[in-house]
């Protein structure tokens, strides 16, 4: 009981400071916030539309009324319309000019309001435009989630490449690919350093651990800036700075696990005649396993989130984390939420799998 | 000779910071330095309190202990821009700027599990046999805890607090996104030069202090 109470403050801190904001961000990845406030009547009418062919006159009437209301609202109306047009264009680029254009021209046409809409822009004669409008007007949709991986929904309900499809997938592929490479590189490089720390005397081990931790704690900005003084810009520099920057996250957990293991075990195994290779495979590697799992999970998550180094050392080739940082800075919460989902998914799945396997069997 | 590859790797790790020190620093750094110190102090205090309590609590068993551990380590397993974006969104929704309070909060959440690990390890270093011996000699549980655990606990807490302070001083990505204007984040992107060598220098100083306080933190 007392133990649970002691653990509670930190649990509450993380729930309030990380889990709750994350929930908010994830909600924004599926929430539609731009179109419904600007075109309330249209979105209400379109909810009853079955999506086949064109919607009936009611929808045209409602759109005309909404656009007229936006024009009448002056500056706030113009802003709301611009936001709605931006959102629609992200789905169906042809719609970027259609909304303001229709609002402009529809008032000049002397006919019924529904006809005026159709005359003002032929785009309203296409099912694709109305389908995009209907999806954007719903309370929630998968638009941002699909957009982050470069897909969009068609009027028929299928999926197709969005205009920036290849670019969006390249962003994610570069980010996840770099993170996987970072895990592999750190796994290969970490062993000698971890062994050194694990085998040293307590004083020397503390000194070495602090020296290894120093570049990690000094921050991504300082590391990348240091590398930018030494290396020519390019993808290689970005990757090298990433690998070496995150290496401490692999070295320290492995060193900790090795120090916890009984140091007499490998010696005993060697005395019993095991070859050095088998001592490594049968004794040292299993005892380092929890550390290796924790290190892989930490390096993978931090590498997925690296954006300062790649932005500084290889500005021409942004990674997914850079796009997320840009979207968050610009306040594009839908885009940020969509990217966050696709970054969180591999990071958390990887962490769960790794930590499970690491906690499994201890030797 | 056997340690040559490891030594080379260690030097390679330290190379970019050496280059940074040699290049020196220019630009406005007084205000970012103040921001950094305030943020780091707040983060360190919060992380030390929560982390120490958690480390002590995790020594005992209770229902939902593994869930509590999973929640505690969660911040370390998130790609930094994701929680930064989330905190920025929360700040926008509630009508505040995120800035330094947000950065301090995040740094505290990053450092607290490490403080908890250090405290947990320090408490575990006392052999249970000693507690049994103390009880057999007639010491009350309180007395035993005072004489056996506390001498190990205090250095561990101090080490954890210094680690949290150093981590917050150096952390740059979340601080940058939240607009905290700390040393690591103030001049990004583009002209990173402003005060850039100062944050690592401070981190090195804090780490050296932690080291001189004695090897209370084994391997951590």
UniProtKB/TrEMBL annotation, chain B:
Membrane topology, as annotated: Multi-pass membrane protein
UniProt entry keywords in alphabetical sequence: Cell inner membrane, Cell membrane, Membrane, Transmembrane, Transmembrane helix, Transport
InterPro entries: MetI-like, MetI-like_sf
Compartmental location: Cell inner membrane
Organism: Pararoseomonas baculiformis
Protein name: ABC transporter permease subunit
Domain ABC transmembrane type-1: from-to ranges: 33-213
Membrane-spanning intervals of the chain: 40-58, 67-91, 103-123, 153-180, 192-212
Species classification: Bacteria, Pseudomonadati, Pseudomonadota, Alphaproteobacteria, Acetobacterales
Major subcellular site: membrane
């Amino acid at each position: 009981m007392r133990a649970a109470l002691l653990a509670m403050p930190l649990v509450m801190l993380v729930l309030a400071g990380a889990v709750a904001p994350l929930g908010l961000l994830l909600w924004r990845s599926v929430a539609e916030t731009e179109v419904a406030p600007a075109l309330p009547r249209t979105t209400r009418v379109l909810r009853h539309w079955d999506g086949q062919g064109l919607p009936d006159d009611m929808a045209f009437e409602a759109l005309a009324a909404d656009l007229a209301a936006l024009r009448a609202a002056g500056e706030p109306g113009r802003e709301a319309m611009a936001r709605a047009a931006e959102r629609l264009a992200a789905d169906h680029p042809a719609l970027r000019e259609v909304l303001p254009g229709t609002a402009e021209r529809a008032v000049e046409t002397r006919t019924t309001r529904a006809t005026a809409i159709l005359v003002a822009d032929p785009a309203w004669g296409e099912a694709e435009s109305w389908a995009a409008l209907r999806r954007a007007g719903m309370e929630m949709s998968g638009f941002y989630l699909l957009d982050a991986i470069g897909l969009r929904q068609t009027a028929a309900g299928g999926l197709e490449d969005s205009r920036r499809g290849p670019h969006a997938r390249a962003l994610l592929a570069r980010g996840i690919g770099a993170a996987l490479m970072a895990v592999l590189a750190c796994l290969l490089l970490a062993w000698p350093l971890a062994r050194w720390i694990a085998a040293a005397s307590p004083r020397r081990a503390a000194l070495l651990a602090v020296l290894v931790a120093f570049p990690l704690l000094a921050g991504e900005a300082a590391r990348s800036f240091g590398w930018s003084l030494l290396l020519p810009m390019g993808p290689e520099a970005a990757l090298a700075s990433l690998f070496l920057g995150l290496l401490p996250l692999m070295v320290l957990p492995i060193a900790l696990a090795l120090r916890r293991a009984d140091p007499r075990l490998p010696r005993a195994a060697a005395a019993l005649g095991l070859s050095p290779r088998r001592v490594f495979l049968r004794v040292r590697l299993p005892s380092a396993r929890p550390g290796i799992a924790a290190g892989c999970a930490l390096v993978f998550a931090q590498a997925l989130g690296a954006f300062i180094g790649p932005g500084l050392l290889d500005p021409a080739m942004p990674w997914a984390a850079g796009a997320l940082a840009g979207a968050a800075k610009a306040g594009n919460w839908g885009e940020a939420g969509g990217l966050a989902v696709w970054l969180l998914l591999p990071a958390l799945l990887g962490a769960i799998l790794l930590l499970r396997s690491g906690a499994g069997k201890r030797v | 000779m056997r340690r040559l590859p490891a030594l080379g790797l260690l030097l390679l790790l330290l190379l970019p910071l050496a280059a940074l020190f040699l290049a020196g620093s220019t630009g406005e750094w007084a205000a970012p330095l103040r921001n950094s110190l305030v943020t780091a102090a707040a983060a360190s205090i919060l992380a030390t309190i929560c982390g120490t309590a958690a480390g002590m609590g995790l020594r005992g068993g209770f229902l939902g202990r593994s869930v509590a551990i999973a929640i505690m380590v969660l911040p370390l397993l998130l790609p930094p821009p994701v929680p930064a974006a989330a905190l920025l969104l929360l700040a926008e929704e509630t009508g505040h700027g995120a800035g330094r309070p947000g950065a301090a909060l995040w740094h505290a959440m990053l450092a607290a599990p490490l403080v908890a690990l250090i405290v947990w390890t320090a408490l575990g270093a006392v052999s249970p046999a000693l507690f049994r011996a103390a009880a057999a000699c007639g010491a009350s549980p309180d007395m035993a805890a005072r004489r056996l655990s506390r001498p190990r606990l205090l250095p561990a807490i101090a080490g954890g607090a210094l680690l949290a302070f150093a981590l917050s001083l150096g952390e740059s990505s979340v601080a940058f996104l939240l607009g905290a204007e700390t040393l690591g984040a103030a001049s990004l992107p583009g002209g990173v030069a402003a005060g850039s060598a100062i944050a690592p220098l401070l981190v090195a100083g804090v780490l050296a202090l932690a080291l001189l306080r004695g090897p209370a933190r084994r391997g951590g």
